[in-house]
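Sync notes, pocket subgroup
Present: LS, DG
LS reminded everyone that the earlier model was apo-only. Rerun requested with cobalt (II) ion included. Inputs:
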Amino acid sequence: MLVSQETGDDAAVYRLPEGRALVATVDFFTPIVDDPYDWGRIAAANAFSDVYAMGARPELALNVVSWPVDELPLDVLAEVLRGGLDVATAAGALVLGGHTITDPEPKYGMVAIGFAEPERIVRNSTARPGSALFLTKPLGTGIVSTAIKERVAPPELVRAAVELMTTLNAGAAEAMVEAGAEAATDVTGFGLLGHLARMLEVSGVAGRVDADAVPLLPGVLALARRGVVPGGTRRNLAYVRPRLEAPGLTEPELLVLADAQTSGGLLIVAADPDGLARALERRRVPYARVGETFAGEPGRIVIEGRPAG
Ligand code: CO
Ligand code: CO
């Protein structure tokens, strides 16, 4: 076992006899958008994201499905599965099968299996002080999902969020491996602040976030100010608040930074920021440099500036 549950990393990593490592992870959830095809695509991109976050490439997948067979037509499920298959195909992964159970609430996701060279695995626990923090997708998909449920999401914001959540972290993963990144994780349910806190803590370093450099989906800060915020995002902020030093930031500003993401970007720690920036640019992966690590109380986060948007 190269990476176990101990450090709360994105996936388990197991050394194979012939000098390769197997990366295994599973993720599934209830619908977060109205369109079943989009939901399938998002769930698959999200499942593969934990493989990419380890610096590996997904090659195999299995569907995990809960379906209310008496209430929801099976052709809706067929659309979900078609979305998952299309994203798997784009990722270069085979869908080998899966398992379905009857459940009052629909759920969909995947077991994702990838492979990597053991010495190129990028852990979440190996950040050192004095390195740069990169983020490869804007924040706000949790707030958008809540806005969809409350029927207050502008259609163009929904389109932008779906586009973001169906974008694979493949290019970002390749770039960080090529650039020899120190550590990485993907930003999902615990939000930027939650995942950063965990990564800093298990690495034994502190971090500074330049809030004005953190990209946001347009309009999510305004939605947060109106109280359109998922429960998970509020729990994330409550969890990280004791480690935060964020003078002057308002509650909605902190909530967008803690927003629970689905299929979010990679949060990468780089000792050679220029090298990582070049590798990302060559692959046309959008990114922002959002802060740095420093020697300090493990898991502590200092926030400077304020999110713009
Ligand atoms: Co993850
Ligand atoms: Co996960």
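DG: Residues 74-91 form the longest helix (18 residues).
LS: The pocket of cobalt (II) ion (ligand 2) is lined by residues 27, 50, 188 (CB under 6 Å).
Action: DG to write up.
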